[in-house]
Amino acid sequence: MGIILAIIIFGLIVTVHEFGHFICAKLSGIKVIEFSVGMGPKLLQKQKGETKYSLRALPIGGYCAMEGEDSTNNDPRSFRNAKLWKRMIVLVAGAGMNFVLGFVALTIFICTLAKVPSTVISGFSGYRDDEGNPTYYARSYETGLRHDDKLISIDGARIYSAWDFNIVFENMSVNESHTVVVKRDGQRLKLENVVFHDTSDTENEQVIDFGIRYYKKNPLTVMRGSGQLFMTMSHVITSSLKQLISGQAKKEDVSGPVGVVSAINESAKESKSIMDAICNLLWMTSLITINVGIFNLLPIPGLDGGRLLFCLIELIRRKPVKPEHEGYVHLAGMVLLFGIMIFATYNDIVKLFTGGFHG
Question: What is the mean pLDDT of residues 17-27?
Answer without folding.
Answer: 95
